[in-house]
Amino acid sequence: MAKRLIETSIDPHTSKFNMIALGPFFDEQTNFEEHKPLRDHMSTLEFEVANHLRKNGNIVLGNHHPGSEVPEDQLNEIKEKVIEFALE
To answer: pLDDT digit string (tens) for 4-19?
Structure first.
């Protein structure tokens, strides 16, 4: 975490921030072949949520890349949860 903050010119020793964590979304998979489609799905959710947060003036640490298509209703549900958290 400190490394990502420093990369964004934020001092990890004097800054205050909120961390958002949602999940788990899926059960743990027993092998990589079963894991990969769910991983790709989650990477798209992370990408879309990161873009949503940036558009609303938030700093998002790390890189996020889409890996598959995600249903719009699922994406909207996740965005609503993030907005609820931000307003608390």
So the answer is: 899 989 999 999 877 7
Question: How many structural domains comprise the chain?
Answer: 1
Within a domain: 11? no
DSSP letters spanning 18-38 = --------SPPPSSHHHHHHH
What is the per-residue pLDDT across 15-47, written as a single tens digit (0 to 9) for each?
Answer: 987 777 778 888 999 999 999 999 999 899 889
The residues, any chain, with a CB within 8 Å of residue 41's CB and separated by 6 or more, are 67, 68, 70
pTM, 2 dp:
0.75
Nearest to 26 by CA among 38, 15, 12: 38
Give the whole-angstrom CA distance, residue 26 versus residue 42. 9
Provide the domain limits for residue 80: 19-87
Q: For residue 64, is it within any domain?
A: yes
